[in-house]
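User: ABC transporter domain-containing protein. Structure?
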Amino acid sequence: MSIQLRRATRRFRHRPIFTDLDLDVPQGARLLLAGDNGSGKTTLLRCLAGTLALTAGRISVAGEPVGSPAARRLVGLCLAPEQGLYGRLSARDNLRLVARLRLPRRSVEPATARVIEELGIGTYADRPAEKCSAGMRARVSIARALLGDPVVLLLDEPTRSLDEPTRAMLWAALDRRRHLTCVIASHHREDRARCDSTLTLPVGR
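Assistant: Predicted structure:
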C-alpha cells in the first residue's frame, strides 16, 4: 500500500475533525477527498504529509511512518497552490530550490526543465513569482510538487485557478506518472471524474 491509515484521529482542542479513520490507498490510485468546507480535507492532507501530527492513530507512506525523513522524501505536496512561493525568486529559481533539496546536483536542471515544459511555465519562468498571476503561481506550485518523482502526491484544490488548457496539462503530467498515488481535495467536476474512488468527510466527524 502506498498510504495506510489506522484509527487516524485529529482533533483541534475538543472539536473532532476526523475520528478512527481506516484507509488503504494502493500504488497508482487516485483518491478524491470530498466534503463541505470545514470537513477536514486540508487537515487530512497535512496529516498525510506529516506537517500536522495526528491526535491518535498512525499513518504510513510506502511502509514508512508519516513525517519521518524517509516518508517526506516520498511525498510531493501542494497546498494553497497560489501561495507559498518565494515572491522575489523567479518561477525557475523556486523550482530549482526544491530540486536541489530532493535530487542529485546533476539532475536539478533536467528535472526543472521537464516540469517547466510539462506545465507550460516557459513563457514566464524567469519572472519573479510575485509578478505572476494566481494561475501562473498555481502551475509553479504543482510543478514543484512533482519534482523528485514522488511516490505520493497530495493536492489541495490544484485546479482552482487553472483554465481548461492548463488543467489538461496537469492531468497529462499525472497520466505520465501512472505509478504515482494521488490524493486530491477538489470541488471541480473534472477532477472528480479523474479519480478512482472518493472519501467523503462529514463536518465534525
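The chain has one domain: 3-200. The beta strands are 3-12, 15-25, 30-34, 56-61, 64-65, 75-78, 152-156, 181-185, 197-200.
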